[in-house]
Amino acid sequence: YNEFQIVKMISDIVESFKQDHPDFFGVKIIYAKHRSIDNETVESFLEKFITLNQEFPDLVVGFDLVGQEDINNPLFLFTDKLRKFEKTAPYFFHAGETNGYGSEADLNLVDAVLLNSRRIGHGYSLYKHPVLWKMVKQKGIALEICPLSNQVLRLVTDMRNHPAVFYVSESVPIVIAPDDPGFWDSVAVGFDFYYALMSLAPHSAGIGFLKQIVWDSVKYSTLTEPERTQYAELLQPKWEAFLDFVIANKVLNY
Question: Where is the signal peptide (predicted)?
Answer without folding.
Answer: none
